[in-house]
Amino acid sequence: MNAPSLALVVVVVALVAVGVYLLLERSLTRVIIGLVLTGNGVNLLLLVAGGKAGGPPLTGQTPPEDMSDPLPQAMVLTAIVITLGMTAFLLAMAYRSWQLTGHDEVQDDLEDRRVARRAALDRAAYEDVDAGTEPESLDEAAAEVHDETGDVGGRS
Amino acid sequence: MLLLLGLHGIAALVAPVVMRWAGRRGFWILALVPGSALVWAIANASSIAHGRIPTSHLAWVPDVGLVVDLRVDTLSWLMVMLVGGVGAAVLVYSSVYFKSGASGLGRFAATLVAFAGSMLGLVTSDNLLLLYVFWELTTVTSYLLIGHYADRKTSRRAAMQAIIVTTAGGLAMLVGIVLLGSAADSYRLSQVLADPPSGAAATTAVVLLLVGAVTKSALVPFHFWLPAAMAAPTPVSAYLHAAAMVKAGVYLVARFAPVYSHLTVWQVTVLGIGGATLLVGGYRALRQYDLKLVLAFGTVSQLGLLVMLVGHGTREAALAGVALLGAHAMFKSALFLSVGVVDAATGTRDLRRLHRVGRALPGTALAAGLAAASMAGVPPFAGYVAKEAAIEALRHDATWSGRVVLVAVLVGSVLTVAYGLRFWWGAFGAKRVLPGQTPATDVGPAAAAEHPRADVTHRPSALLVGPALVLATLGLVTGLAPTLGDHLLSPYAAGLPGEGAHLVLWAGPVGALITAAVLAGGAWLFRQRTPVERWQGHRPWPLDVDLVYRRSMRRLDGLAADVTGATQRGSLPLYLGTVLVVMVVGAGWALATGTALPGLDAIRWWDSPGQAIAGALAVVAAILAARSRRRLKAVVLAGISGFGVALLFLLHGAPDLGLTQVLVETITLVVFVLVLRRLPPYFSVRPLAASRWVRMAVGLAVGLTVGVLALVMPLARTASPVSVAFPAEAYEFGGGKNVVNVTLVDIRAWDTMGEISVLLVAATGVASLIFLRRRSGDLDRSGAVRERTVWRVDADAMAPLRASARARWEASVRAGGPARIHSEWLSGAGSLHPQRRSVIMEIATRLLFHTMVVVAIYLLFSGHNAPGGGFVAGLVVGIALAVRYLAGGRYELGDAAPVHPGLLLGSGLFLSAGVGLLALLFGQQVLESTIVQVDLPVLGHVKLVTSLFFDIGVFGVVVGLVLDLLRSLGAEIDRHVDAELDDRSGGDQEAPTDAAGAR
């Protein structure tokens, strides 16, 4: 008797599917809308996991056995507000991206592309002056090194 | 002992201060620290020799078996003597070796003392994990000291090489330690040794431990890092790379030899590698021109000999080994310190450029001579006593391995004598034919220019020569009193099988003959030095391990780049897609194999018909939002979908959720619109149709997986939910009837605390993205504004109408009419561009704002018993502020909330946390509620729960968040727009219409 109502499950499926579809977009605005939709879908999923519908969890108004599960509700409540904060942050990023580049599309990471390009050319990810393979004789290396020795005494 | 360790730690921390305060003399103060370890060791020498072993114990993380167990038996005692004694000598030496203004002396001194402490911990630790920690600490300090001159490529390279090689071995050793510890069921060293585990796991562990020892003690094939490490300042070479750190590997071998030397793999590894190292090091020492390099290869060679002796597994060899361990520390550090003197006095260490230095530096030459004699095994020095004991021990070992080892030791001793002589002659002797050159070229001017003769330009102070002389003399004194060494060291050897072993000066005629032969052979080899050098020069070393190392490092870089290039494509959709597909596969697999769908009869279509309608609204709006090409439309549709979800919440019996969802959707919509006004109205056209299908497929797959999850999850519950007891608990302990709200502010208050912290971070993030430089600028207040320029428009169609109305008004003022009609309440709206003002909006705001605030306060205080609470109340106030902003612009917002959002956020969080902590003062747990019931005159019976203040904190954070969003995404972006318009119009070209006479 604990099985969920099919209507809710359908809504969850639809919201998550559409949300993920939008999440995989490049336009940051669409990504944010996808995030909001997915968030709504997952919030419903949490509620569904808590069991079937019931009366509001208010002591005195609903008998405890008829209450809907309050725990997922508390979790979802915080999740909703966090989604607001996250949406706002991403929107600020979209705005900043628009300020800097004139659009809000998520570009490929330049550094990653550079590393991949260099790897394709069989070169190290970065040039390290200390990591050369050219042989250097120990004597030459030793001659270069000299300590900052002091005034060990008077001149002889 | 713990005190000593703590002393080292503190000294390392304060060393930079000491050095800044006392200059070079600071080294004297710091020398007291390792000196105290030496004094401690001397004071305890007798009792340790008699078997009274000092131990100390400090529980560090006892739950995971990590305790500081220290134990000083004979072997550890010897190492403490070396670490403390040589450490003190080197620090005193450093006080005159470096010039007073030398760079980084504070760091150098701190690292050196830290090393001394780590080494002390390493050799006294009785816990394998602790030993590993100290082991790696010495590696790190060694790295820092080798790389002391970080501006030199050679130093950086040598440091890097040393740390990579030794940490690689250290990691292997850690695996070995864990294997051994789990096999023995104890990480306590003395316990493991008392009852050593056997079997394949233990054998593997021993091999891995040996890998650690081999890398640390620079044995073949990892010997290459030690000569390169000569890039370190000479005192470091004398201490770390001759006396102390490189002995760690020897120490480890000596530690485990009594219980594991019978293993074949041990014998092959230790004796094979030790012998090879002994010969390779001695051979290569014969061709170096840099004095430190001669000594470095000599050290490599001697380390091989030491490992062979202590790892041989007989009592005699072990006693000889530990005796040589002590002798080597004395003579090798004395030799390095002498090189430092020569270097400081002449400015070079190249033996081709030094001539008759011994005359100018007699004290140094004497010290180096004594030390070299000890190294070569000349009677009656300590080196001789040890080597004599070794040869005696090996001579009586009739096994084939004993024979091979004996031959290796004899050949190695000959080489040692030869390079010892070559070193002393090279540093101090007179040269007719400069080595490395044929006599013919020697007289030519070119050769002289290439290696110009260096003369002694500075005379060293006594403090510079003293440490070397003391150490070298000690080598003579201990050699003259072999019974003392015998007495102190034989307890260690007693743990090994074998006959009674002794250290003596006269070991019989055969021993004397062998010694004489070795000395003679070495002297002959020294005489033949020029041919030997030429011969070595013509035959380059067949396998340059250093080059192998560098090439493999390069390959590793290449591999890393390949892996990065293959996995990090830099595309966000690709990463997200990967994550989601993994989720589908993982969760789908678990669902398909481990669960069953509920039967059709168990499924209800809906809980109520309204659910279907609200659900359809949410789904249709979401799909339309995804299809929309217009940004605003997509956002509005997503908002409608969100309202549908809010309805579903309400129908599910979650009024708090429904309320929150509606409010959040509203604010989200406002925030979206605020940002979207700056973005292009349409999404860019993306022609990649194929990728769209892929995205749809991924979306559908994820959606269906989640759907199956939703069907399966409610049935998968086996235990009764934790929340069954919530209603009763909420009323009894939390003092509230709204179970969700009590859950938030009391039962699961920690979650809420974390969540409002996230909100604070998000708000700060938004502000920092928009404000870029500072957010705490002046607030926009309407009193300061003169112009009606907010949200101005380019073309104002109504301007002529307004102009005529204005003319009429001015005429009436001139005629004596009222100059000002009334003082507006929404005065900030006066700053708006006239066309942006909306009478309906302003009137609505006037009606609504206060009502909303009052409702919010009601929700806040009643939230404990009825739907509402801090989140909902905060959101309502947020919407009220948004309405004010939309009606009156940014100046109105400043009037409505004349406070910085950061202040609200911070004080909100502070209040929540503070209330939570306050409970501690009353002996309760953090965030526990207290119920106070009072009867007040007007309000009647009041039941006050302390978690209300927590909720007020939440309220503050939420209001702060929304205010921050309005300030950043609203007001600040307005300012950006204005600045752009000003730039475009050039400021004065066309003053905004109606700007001049706003009032």
Describe this structure in words.
The complex is a heterodimer of chains A (156) and B (999). Chain A has helices spanning 6-23, 28-49, 70-101, 110-120, 138-144. Chain A is elongated. With 156 residues, chain A is mainly α. In chain A, α1 packs antiparallel against α2. Chain A has a domain at 6-111: Helix Hairpins (Orthogonal Bundle), CATH 1.10.287. In chain B, α12 (264-285) packs parallel to α18, α14 (315-346) packs antiparallel against α16 (362-376) and α14 (315-346) packs across α22 (482-493). Chain B has 999 residues and is mainly alpha-helical. In chain B, the strands form two sheets. Chain B has a two-stranded antiparallel ribbon with strand order 1-2. Chain B has a two-stranded antiparallel sheet with strand order 3-4. The longest helix of chain B has 39 residues, at 947-985. Chain B is elongated and about 130 Å long. The chains are: A mainly alpha (156), B mainly alpha (999). At the A-B interface, α1, α2, α3, α4 and α5 of A face α6, α14, α25, α26 and α27 of B. Chain A: This is Na(+)/H(+) antiporter subunit C.
Provide a brief overview of the structure.
Chain A has 156 residues and is mainly alpha-helical. Chain A contains five helices and no strands.
Task: Please specify the SSE layout and strand pairing.
The complex is a heterodimer of chains A (156) and B (999).
Chain A: H1 6-23, H2 28-49, H3 70-101, H4 110-120, H5 138-144
Helix pairs in contact in A: 1-2, 2-3
Chain B: H1 2-22, H2 26-49, E1 55-61, E2 66-71, H3 74-97, H4 105-124, H5 128-146, H6 153-184, H7 189-194, H8 200-216, H9 225-228, H10 234-243, H11 247-260, H12 264-285, H13 291-311, H14 315-346, H15 357-360, H16 362-376, H17 382-395, H18 400-428, H19 439-442, H20 445-450, H21 462-480, H22 482-493, H23 509-527, H24 529-538, H25 545-567, H26 572-594, H27 609-627, H28 631-652, H29 655-676, H30 689-712, H31 726-732, H32 739-747, H33 749-771, H34 799-814, H35 839-862, H36 870-896, H37 901-921, E3 931-936, E4 940-945, H38 947-985
